[in-house]
Amino acid sequence: MELNDDKESCSVREKKKRLKKVSVDKLSREELEARVLQLEAQNVQLQNILTKKFQEESSVLKEIGKQKKRDKPFDFSKYSKRHVLLKLAYLGWDYQGYAIQDNTSKTIENNLFEALLMTKLIESRETSNYHRCGRTDKGVSAFDQVISITLRSRLNLGDQKNENGDDETLSSANMKKEIDYVDILNKVLPSEIQILAWCPVDEGFSARFDCTKRKYKYFFPKGNYNIELMNKAGQYLKGPHDYRNLCKMDVGNGVVNFKREIKNINITLINLDERDSEENHCIKSPEELELIEKKSSSYSMCVATIEGKAFLWHQVRCIMAILFLVGEGKEDPDIILQLLDVENYPRKPQYALASELPLNLYETSYEDSIEWRWNYRALLYVVTQMQTFWAQHNIKATMVRHILHDLESCLYKLEDGDGEEVCGQSLGLLGEPHSKKGYRQLMTRPKCSDLETRVDHYVKRRRLDPNILDKEKEAACENHKTDSLDPNIPDQDKDKETQYEDINKDSIPS
Amino acid sequence: MELNDDKESCSVREKKKRLKKVSVDKLSREELEARVLQLEAQNVQLQNILTKKFQEESSVLKEIGKQKKRDKPFDFSKYSKRHVLLKLAYLGWDYQGYAIQDNTSKTIENNLFEALLMTKLIESRETSNYHRCGRTDKGVSAFDQVISITLRSRLNLGDQKNENGDDETLSSANMKKEIDYVDILNKVLPSEIQILAWCPVDEGFSARFDCTKRKYKYFFPKGNYNIELMNKAGQYLKGPHDYRNLCKMDVGNGVVNFKREIKNINITLINLDERDSEENHCIKSPEELELIEKKSSSYSMCVATIEGKAFLWHQVRCIMAILFLVGEGKEDPDIILQLLDVENYPRKPQYALASELPLNLYETSYEDSIEWRWNYRALLYVVTQMQTFWAQHNIKATMVRHILHDLESCLYKLEDGDGEEVCGQSLGLLGEPHSKKGYRQLMTRPKCSDLETRVDHYVKRRRLDPNILDKEKEAACENHKTDSLDPNIPDQDKDKETQYEDINKDSIPS
């Protein structure tokens, strides 16, 4: 096979290939031997190319393939177990979401369970007493996802209890004897998914129900956004509200209560000075903010931080979409007040979600008695992986930034254009795409169905209790709780139909 | 041969292959014939699988498929042509290199020609009088690649000439009438490959042979590198030298002259202050440099700029590999002097190339009479595309930077480790991976074959003229030129064998 011969067109090469197939009985012995060697070499070459391609597609499957060959049946009954929390971080950009799905193996959970099974830390998913803190969608990342699960233990039950006992020497020794869960799992997990720490918990502890706080971060380029206006609008979101107009209503799965509480929300520029990156995590004075603002450009990065106990499906991305419209000056900050006023505005106007790429489940909290166990060597390994990812993306970003600098200079010099438009315009990629017809005010747009209509739809299909709304109201009165039915959306298994619903329509098919 | 049977381990498959490779001279005539037929069949099977995969990969091909159904045959004879230069930029990270290859459709050139054919700007590649300025490898990007090519024109020959005529009104009108090459191509090209500008040239103009200067940039994180030492070593590279120990010798393709000239080389930190990003392109005083150094961290970005008329295969990546070793303190800057001293060190020590990701063919130059034609609207489109890429990568980098900040704080707090080690260690991902055996000095390592041995190897296989080295010396004396035989490496077609050579060995199989 001729390679790299760019003088030949594809059709000529095809002809050559056909010509080569001379009948074998016409070849001499010598020619036959040479032909065999040549074909074997070509074959190996092609195999190598194909093997490379398959390897690119499968990350953990390789490991499983090797492992299955060596496995004798594993006798779990010989080992004790313990209930633990695992803290994990994952870069979800190239995954189809956190939750296992039928039609793809490229989910966080799938890789996690492959790793747990391969390392014999669990016998099966069904018997592992597994709960997860949050469920992130396709493309979304997390730095503080937590799961509760029962794992194989090297210690007997007595030693497990002694870890927190009075005898410090004994408990320290016991802790070191335990399986190094973090290290073992990280070696078989893909590098985008890493365990950070673990800690022992009581049998009944649930990563899902015992979570006291969830904090999301959303990283975006400043572009032309007015951060001050975005913060003004953001503050209206604080407190207990009905957020049905700022989420995707998951009625099909029994979610009919949209009251949640946003405890904190803040948007800030990220300080450019690397050395002071700790300051990025502190509250800044107005003077400091002004100074940062002056030094910033369209290419500066911002971060929005939103904190609450529990969130609705797509709530953060809906919020960011509206805040971007406010930041662009297309809507007033007061639009938030309208969207939260479900009495007068029970139907959500149609608008697109903000991109999933910048979203990260950044911090989750549990009761104070939870003591995470960190291991230096294991953590160093995670840091190394993350540094590699950072370098790859920052190298690319830096390279592109350079050409943008040159191209933007060209644009300014070209006489027949308005250079001012350029900066930041397409950096608004995170919100709605620009429409040639011009911007349409939110409250003038077609509206999605209201809650009652959606409930009717599912009641008719016998998938919901006809009295669900009344029961919800009763429960709310009795408990004075706002989230008694489903404290941890979007944890519930998604209805297949709603999962593939057209987000932009966000309406019940008629 | 079983394909895609991931239940078999790799070692079992290997054994199967070895069993099959019985020595050909031990086979009977019958067995040989059978073997040829069997291998041919397997070959076809593999080819088909690969072809399917290419079709999945190829973006533009789908369009062509649709297009072909609708097309009436296009009558090129109705149109005049003109010889032009096209300036293009591409992000090569996800491509298999610039040059068209048999085993993949994911090359820059393939996409370029699909676009040129689809838009009927050329009739076929063979008749398009095509030359390219530089040929970049897999993963490498370019912001100033130039090609010369003959395209369909809307103007008659007379109007083409008038564009640069005395009558300004007429020439301006003519220029506007011409096909908007940039716009038309960019709409069908993938967004990572974009035309920036075009300009008319005389029939004989060659993007390859008429290029007067090529400048590469290499973007990398500062990590623990000593930039001052790297620059000291870099300066030794300037001037005319024999760079055989700092490249991949392409002897199989007739490259036996390794004398080139590096006109400029400089490594600098990239200024953190976005507003002053223009300054990144200016020379800085020692005081400015010191100030920048103080504000920098392991996560600051640096750029190496290397300029010459022509470069050898992998020359820049070899240079960066050595400079990284110098920057890490593993080699003295003087190592460069040794590597350039081909009299005393005619054989290259084995070392790995630096990563291809950060490399960019940043600027190419032609004679002054070349006037690039820029179009505001088209350029705005390119800027928009690039801003999207920048945003995607910077969002990811920013997100990862944040978790690194948190994780590194954890590491510092853990008592049983040395937090100081962490910063920058794995940011040296671009050079050699750390070996557990420890670092081995370059000049103590196994060496690759020297030039004469390689020439012998190919002469024996009758692929090179036995007198090639002598002829080279004569030519060099007569012309006083250093690059008379092949001015524009790595443009030449790569030898099949060297393409699949193990880069790390970089030696002729014995």
Automatic annotation (TrEMBL), chains A, B:
Residues 470-484, 491-510 have a biased composition (Basic and acidic residues). InterPro entries: PsdUridine_synth_cat_dom_sf, PsdUridine_synth_TruA, PsdUridine_synth_TruA_a/b_dom, PsdUridine_synth_TruA_C, Pus3-like, TruA/RsuA/RluB/E/F_N. Residues 470-510 are annotated as: Disordered. It comes from the Eukaryota. One of its GO terms (molecular function) is pseudouridine synthase activity. Gene3D superfamilies: Pseudouridine synthase I, catalytic domain, C-terminal subdomain, Pseudouridine synthase I, catalytic domain, N-terminal subdomain. Residues 235-367 form the Pseudouridine synthase I TruA alpha/beta domain. Signal peptide: none annotated. Keywords: Isomerase, tRNA processing. PANTHER family: PSEUDOURIDYLATE SYNTHASE, TRNA PSEUDOURIDINE(38_39) SYNTHASE. Belongs to the tRNA pseudouridine synthase TruA family. This is Pseudouridine synthase I TruA alpha/beta domain-containing protein.
